[in-house]
Amino acid sequence: MMAGLQQLPCAPRFLVCLALAVGMMRTGSSAAAAGDAPPGKIAVIGAGIGGSSVAYFLQQHFGSQVQLDVYEKDMVGGRLATVTVNKQQYESGGASIHSLNLHMQDFVKLLGLKHRREVAGKSAVFSGEHFVLEETDWYLLNLFRLWWHYGMSFLRLQMWVEEVMEKFMRIYKYQAHGYAFSRVEELLHSLGGDTFVNMTQRSVAESLLEVGVTQRFIDDVIVAILRASYGQSVLVPAFAGAMSLAGAQGNMWAVEGGNKLVCSDLLKLTKANVIQATVTAISLHSSEGKNFYQVHYEDEEGQGSSFYDIVVIATQLHDNKSNITFQNFDPPIAEFPGTFHTTIASIVHGYLNSSYFGFTDPKLFPFTSVLTTDSPAVFFNSMDNICPVNVSSTFRRKQPQDAAVWRVHSQHPLEKQELKILFRSYYSVQVTEWQAYPSYESSKTLPPIILHDNLYYLNSMEWAASSVEMAVVAAKNVALLAYNLWYHDLDKIDQKDLIHKIKTEL
Predict the structure, then answer these.
(1) Distance CA 122, CA 135 (A)
(2) Is residue 15 pLDDT above 60, yes or no?
(3) Which keywords annotate this record (predicted)?
(4) Rounded distance, CA 449 to CA 55, Å?
(5) Fewer C-beta neighbours within 10 Å, C or N terminus of the chain?
């Protein structure tokens, strides 16, 4: 990866054309080698949580004098999105954030946002014929039921997840001290050694069986959690599975007014120039030992382009979803193997058909969240009775017999007959098709973070695990990596034994 630091041959005559065509370089910076002056312009492609976070972190490190252009073809927020039902907004994308996501906690304080008031509810796991596990209002009774059905599996799962999360939390210390990683494998190894790297190559089922979790617990509980989060099976890699299971153990929160506010407010804070356009290509140009990246785009007015010192791609390059081509790179930037998994989110305003779940009296249906096992009889992954993004102190959930707003996750758009099975009647259905997560079984290869000298791929991290937390950690890593490479501070990149180094620094 570090070989990418070598500069390409000069092309002096191109510099004149470059300056005339764009006029983008600040005084003195056009002839300066990287490291002699701060970058003049930085492009971020994508305004989801990764793109908006990296824009903030880049400005934090390089300073407010750097011009930040953020390209977004759709809505700011990306996979953090809402839909409107009866003049109220509801989360249709990333709905919850883990309490251990320290960067997001900091963003909420920095931006003056608030945690959304939690409205309690109970969950259950449905097999298509009956409930295999039901949550009650009593914590001790829930623990007893887990022990009665599954022995020590729940405790072994909890210990395994806590061990993974305890090591993962080291990343915040590393980043606070300015350390960055040029590859996802290096980052994982610094946190958990070979164990973490191997966890990207073996399934979560295999890892859990190894620590003594029973197959029955995996089939009834772990499968249901992974279907609800990733829409995939227990064959997902163990590291991605651990991150998903950590969220299922509670301690989740959301932003009052919608999680997407973090994205839009970060971009406002950085005064980033948000360009509503589709990026079509990135081409490399070189002059006097310095590289420039030309970002080509299409907007309502037609085609355009701009030149940048640094470019961060914060959108998918896999599965031919981005349609971004790379020009003049030698060697060429390779295509990445793997596909993305499609999840359908249906926001349904209607009356639940509780009889399908075995409750003939709708008033007696006690659950606000239903997860499902991997059964031919089940045509959906999960469904939740969701609250609006603005939850007042007087808000109360609707009674189970009343019309409510449900979010149903499924592998395919629900057919009318399937909607009739889940709901006695409904007022509206709004469907969102998400390329939300990598299809983890489609590739075991972790893509590179550095595509070229100052060209970075932020979304490579989600091939280890995909969540809001991982996106923001990836954003901080890319910002630090870009900063350290720009100023040739290689002692801050891919360092070994960081725990010891940080203790020594303190």
Answers:
(1) 6
(2) no
(3) FAD, Flavoprotein, Glycoprotein, Oxidoreductase, Signal
(4) 16
(5) C
Q: In this model, does residue 17 exceed pLDDT 60?
A: no
How far is Cα 77 from Cα 468, in angstroms, rounded to an integer? Answer: 11
Tokens for 487, please give them. Answer: 């100023």
What are the structure tokens assigned to 12, written together?
A: 């002096």
Give the span between the Cα atoms of 376 and 399, in whole angstroms.
30
Do 446 and 240 meet the contact criterion of CB atoms below 8 Å apart? no
Which stretches does DSSP call E strand in 183-333? 252-253, 273-276, 278-287, 290-299, 302-308, 310-313, 325-327
Amino acid making up residue 294: Q
Burial class (CB in 10 A: 0-12, 13-18, 19+), 109: exposed
Sign of the alpha-carbon torsion through 148, 152, 156, 158: positive
> What does the domain layout of the chain look like in residue ranges?
82-98+116-165+200-257+340-440
Strands 369-372 and 423-438: unpaired
Q: Among the listed ranges 323-337, 362-376, 415-429, which one has the minimum average pLDDT value?
A: 323-337
From the list 402, 398, 418, the residue with the least C-alpha distance to 410 is 418
Tokens standing for residue 200: 């990207």
Tell me the per-residue pLDDT of 454-491, one tens digit each, with 9 for 90 and over: 999 999 999 999 999 999 999 999 999 999 999 999 99
pTM (2 d.p.)? 0.90
How many whole angstroms separate alpha carbon 168 and alpha carbon 173? 10
How much is the pLDDT for 366?
Answer: 97
User: In whole numbers, what is the pLDDT of the chain averaged over residues?
Assistant: 90
- Rounded to whole angstroms, the Cα distance separating 464 from 161 reads 16
The string of pLDDT tens digits covering residues 348-386 is: 999 999 999 999 999 999 999 999 999 999 999 999 999
Q: Is 78 left (phi over 0), alpha (psi -120 to 50) or beta?
A: left
Instruction: Please give the biggest Cα pair distance in the chain.
Output: 80
Q: Both ends of the chain: CA-CA distance in Å?
A: 30
Contact criterion met (CB below 8 Å) for 380 and 422: yes
Q: What is the pLDDT of residues 126-147, one digit of tens each?
A: 999 999 999 999 989 999 999 9
Beta strands in 309-395 (DSSP E): 310-313, 325-327, 340-352, 369-372, 382-385
Give pLDDT tens digits for 90-121: 999 988 898 889 999 999 999 999 999 989 89
> Token pair 């490190």 is at which residue?
61
